């Protein structure tokens, strides 16, 4: 049943959109491109023919991908009501763009992509052999988003309509000014701005931009490794995740009336949530290792599950419970794909 009382466009995401092209392939196909069964790389010149050859040789699934888009897709799937989410990012003007638009809109997202003829649509080949995945990403247009697209009336109106904003840390490498503009709008209008550390290397690579936006962060997601690296980079002097969470939650914030929430996921270990000096732990129900098909994207799904309840005004306990549920669904599927219906209550 659809949640017809959820406002249109209540959740707004911005990030690096990719078209995941997924197919079971022969091991000889990996060998032809010197790829490993369990690895993820950025495409070099020698890998660019792979995408067309893969489509010609194998039956492929086309999935809307990229970290933020995966979280927004997860929230949209759980909310069941079309176009309660809006997503922006940069794509090309090519056949992959058409496939990406169709994949995202068929799942109920409103996509207001910036399109450029100067770069190809970002793609990620997902090469499946047995239970193994080899990922080859060509970021292309995804790395070329411009703030002027965000500020166009037909796009900014969805920023104004939204109540909650989400973007992964990867987008800080692409358009930090866009993230800052949305973060300031969120603060000025009493809304919620959430982001994700996303990867340990970003903590040093985009440190200055991350620190500029940090006072506007209302909710920060990340895993135990990312928070440990953050603590080392900022000389916290502790490896205790609860203490790290408390220190990050207490960092300067432009809106002290809304205490920052820090959410630390730890795979099968309890989720740690810190808010206003209080530390909570949420156990993760055990999952049989034989049932785990693919761990890629579980963190994105957790964030999407959390946000799906937040937009409905649910308490932290319910938001975390749904985040855990969504992550468990994704762990048991190949790629960031969803069953037609969910049984989350």
TrEMBL record:
Assigned EC number: 2.7.1.20
UniProt record, GO biological process: AMP salvage; purine nucleobase metabolic process; purine ribonucleoside salvage
CDD domains (alphabetical): adenosine_kinase (cd01168)
Name listed for the protein in its UniProt record: Adenosine kinase
Cofactor(s), by name: Mg(2+)
Organism annotation: Trichoplax adhaerens (Trichoplax reptans)
Active site: 300
Chemical reaction(s) catalysed: adenosine + ATP = AMP + ADP + H(+)
SUPFAM superfamilies per record: Ribokinase-like
Molecular functions per Gene Ontology: adenosine kinase activity; ATP binding
């Amino acid at each position: 049943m659809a949640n017809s009382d959820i406002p249109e466009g209540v959740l707004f995401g911005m990030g690096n959109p990719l078209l995941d092209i997924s197919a079971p392939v022969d091991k000889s196909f990996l060998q032809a491109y010197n790829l490993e069964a369990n690895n993820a790389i950025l495409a070099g010149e020698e890998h660019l023919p792979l995408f067309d050859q893969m489509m010609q040789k194998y039956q492929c699934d086309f999935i809307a991908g990229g970290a933020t888009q995966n979280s927004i897709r997860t929230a949209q799937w759980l909310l069941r009501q079309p176009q309660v989410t809006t997503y922006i990012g940069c794509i090309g003007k090519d056949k992959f763009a058409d496939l990406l638009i169709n994949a995202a809109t068929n799942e109920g997202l409103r996509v207001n992509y910036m399109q450029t003829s100067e770069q190809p649509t970002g793609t990620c080949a997902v090469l499946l052999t047995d239970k193994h995945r080899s990922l080859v990403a060509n970021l292309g247009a995804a790395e070329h988003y411009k703030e002027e697209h965000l500020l166009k009336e037909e796009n900014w109106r969805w920023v104004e309509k939204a109540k909650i904003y989400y973007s992964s840390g990867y987008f800080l490498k692409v358009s930090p000014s866009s993230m800052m503009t949305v973060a300031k709008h969120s603060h000025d209008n009493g809304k919620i701005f959430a982001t994700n550390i996303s990867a340990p290397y970003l903590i040093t690579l985009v440190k200055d931009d991350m620190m500029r936006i940090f006072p506007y962060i209302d909710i920060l997601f990340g895993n135990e490794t990312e928070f440990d690296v953050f603590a080392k980079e900022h000389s916290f002097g502790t490896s205790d995740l609860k203490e790290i969470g408390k220190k990050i939650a207490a960092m300067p914030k432009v809106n002290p009336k809304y205490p920052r929430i820090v959410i630390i996921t730890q795979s099968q270990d309890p989720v740690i949530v810190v808010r206003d000096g209080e530390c909570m732990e949420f156990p993760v129900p055990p999952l049989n290792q034989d049932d785990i098909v693919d761990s890629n994207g579980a963190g994105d799904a957790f964030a999407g599950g959390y946000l799906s309840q937040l937009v409905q005004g649910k308490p932290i306990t319910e938001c975390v419970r749904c985040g855990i549920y969504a992550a468990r669904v994704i762990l048991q599927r190949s790629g960031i794909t969803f069953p037609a219906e969910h049984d989350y209550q």
